[in-house]
Amino acid sequence: MSQTVLPLISVVIPTYRRPDLLMERSLPSALAQTYPNLEVIVVQDGGPDPETEARLSALADPRVRHVILEGNQGGATARNAGVQAAGGEWIAFLDDDDAWLPHKLERQLALAGRSRFRWPVISSQWFTRTLEGDEPNLHRPLREGEPLGDYLLSRDQPSVRECGLTCSTLLVPRALLLQVPFTDGLPKHQDTDWLLRAGAHPGVGVEVLQEPAILYYFEAGRPQMSWNSRWAYSLEWAEGHYRAGRMSRRAYAGFLVSFVSPLAARTPTLKAFLTIGGRLLRLRPRLFEWPRFLMIWLLPDRLRARLFRRRADVRTGNSAHLKR
């Protein structure tokens, strides 16, 4: 009886001069997967880093390969480089500051095998890990016919958060990523930008593993590759997707309230308030979006965060911190 040949999964880990996180968090969790047929491609952004190279060489694991990008090209370009170098039928992305639970790839690939879509994009639930503990980030599956932008960026009701998906959750066919790569040079919203463009591709469907498989680390004060507080950039990025038809009116309004407004309100100006408020008026959001919008602008950030945590704790019965 012949043995079944398991498809190769290529794990792509972009990193930028953070050898401790890479070697002590993300890479060990990839190599400890219960799914056996994998390779790991570490994409080092920003040119050679002697410490990272020395520690990878000392690892001496034949499953690990190393790609070096000249100059700091950003996470999107690093992921594309990893896809190009990959030999696997499937690509799984992992940020260097996150970690996987051991069953992540095995259970996601099983879900992909049951998918009815030609190009299944497989995500999962995750735990947000903070100094205060682990908080389950649980979100529902997509509904039949639901626009992906609505699922990612808008709320069904005031007390239920958006169903955001991050790169570290994704398992994607390599053939799809070759047709729909990440947007090179995009400084932020890389995950959502790719999902919105991929979701518009014929035959693509998103499936969500209904159990946590990721440890998503939220460590206040530590710089992350995706952090960037320019609210005007985020506003125009969303406007572009809205005009292209990849973001509905509802999704655009939700993004303005939940993502753009908190950035702008850190250093509030009348111009920013009127600009974002004017876009919201044009979009005619649901009524519950207006109190949220005003609360963001009128309450200090710390008080707003405390109120949010208190409401979340009452709603879920958890006392751990929820990431905003």
UniProtKB/TrEMBL annotation:
**Which InterPro entries does this one have?**
Glyco_trans_2-like, Glycosyltransf_2, Nucleotide-diphossugar_trans
Residues annotated as domain Glycosyltransferase 2-like: 10-116
PANTHER family from the UniProt entry = GLYCOSYLTRANSFERASE, GLYCOSYLTRANSFERASE 2-LIKE DOMAIN-CONTAINING PROTEIN
Q: Name one GO molecular function term.
A: glycosyltransferase activity
SUPFAM superfamilies named among the record's database cross-references: Nucleotide-diphospho-sugar transferases
> Can you name this protein?
Glycosyltransferase family 2 protein
Organism from which the protein derives: Deinococcus sonorensis KR-87
Q: Which UniProt keywords apply?
A: Glycosyltransferase, Transferase
Listed EC numbers? 2.4.-.-
CDD domains found in the cross-reference section? Glyco_tranf_GTA_type (cd00761)
Q: Which residues form a coiled coil?
A: none
